[in-house]
Amino acid sequence: MEDQKQPGNISRVLVTGAAGFIGSHTCDRLLETGKTVMGIDDLSTGKLANLAGASGQDTFSFQQADVCDEPAIVDIFVDFQPDAVIHLAALVSVPIAENNPAENFRINVSGTQSVAQAAHLSGAERIVFASSAAVYGNSDALPLCEEEPVNPVNQYGMAKLEAENLLLGYEESHGLVTTCLRFFNVYGPRQDPSSPYSGVISIFAEHCRTGQAVTVYGDGHQSRDFIFVKDIARAVVASATNSTLSGGIYNLCSGKAKTLLQLLDALKEIYLDIPGPVFKEGRKGDIRHSLGDPAAAHAKLGFSTSTSFAEGIGELLASIQGQ
Ligand SMILES: NC(=O)c1ccc[n+]([C@@H]2O[C@H](COP(=O)([O-])OP(=O)(O)OC[C@H]3O[C@@H](n4cnc5c(N)ncnc54)[C@H](O)[C@@H]3O)[C@@H](O)[C@H]2O)c1
């Protein structure tokens, strides 16, 4: 460990939710950029296999821990002395959060409180938080920009909004530079297709790979703003490690809408004889259209996506071939 922290020099980064889908890509990206990384995760949905690449490197360490256990988290942070923290650990399933509001609050709000306190007590300069487009709810004002009023319509979105406010409060009272990144629909390798609550692209891709018909809830014309996980990891890492960037709230999105039927067409170009989709009644609470405005992240963070939809789908499918 370095004897003395040098303000503005971000070399040690702690990642919560490190063994998850986005967390593991974030660790890979941090290591590629020469950072010393500690990952923590309770392995509730994350897998150590996701960290296979990171674990072989001597600048990476991992601790299994629950972000809600504040004394343990504070000890880990104070011991590691991060310059920046990336907080990704969460209960990520909207339906599970809806049915277990207390658990959603415990992990997504109280867990964020523990992480903020540990970041503050360990002297971290910056924190980046994985927020969500769910904070906007069912807005018609597409594409959604950050000034749009927030109006979450489910427990998960409410907790993400509460966590954003909690962290911005830490910035106000303790100077912890806070960046809340509102992710839209993230997809790519390592997203777990076995969960019914996983991202739609992973579920569709897995069905196509195994020759099963996909289920489309509704007419298939509902649309999403899909963003590739390595683009997300690049933006998260830049926000955490570039000390010239001020904090704030930013959408992380592609700014391009794709319908579920367009997604299926892209998969059909690769899996030529997949059975036609099975249409079922639309699910209550599903948002019809989601589209973000990426302009603020571009202007203030210098971020733009670099992976086209075709490239991202290709990389995802290559990663699941032969499984
Ligand atoms: N995937 C998306 O499309 C998307 C969209 C918007 C926001 N997000 C947010 O991005 C973050 C990462 O999501 P993901 O898609 O990689 O999901 P994920 O489930 O793969 O990752 C979450 C990780 O957090 C860990 N975790 C859960 N509870 C924990 C706890 N109490 N203590 C320690 N670790 C805990 C899990 O084991 C898992 O590894 C989450 O905060 C999620 O809400 C994701």
Labels describing this entry:
UDP-galactose 4-epimerase, domain 1, 11 helices, seven-stranded parallel β-sheet, alpha/beta, Rossmann fold, 17% strand, two-stranded parallel sheet, binds nicotinamide-adenine-dinucleotide, 323 residues, 13 strands
What does this structure look like?
- The protein has 323 residues and is of the alpha/beta class.
- The protein has two domains: 12-187 and 226-254 and 292-301, NAD(P)-binding Rossmann-like Domain (Rossmann fold), CATH 3.40.50; 200-223 and 256-291 and 309-320, UDP-galactose 4-epimerase, domain 1.
- 39% of the residues lie in helices and 17% in strands.
- It has eleven helices and 13 strands.
- The chain has a seven-stranded parallel beta sheet, with helices on both faces. A two-stranded parallel sheet has the order 7-10.
- It is globular and about 60 Å long.
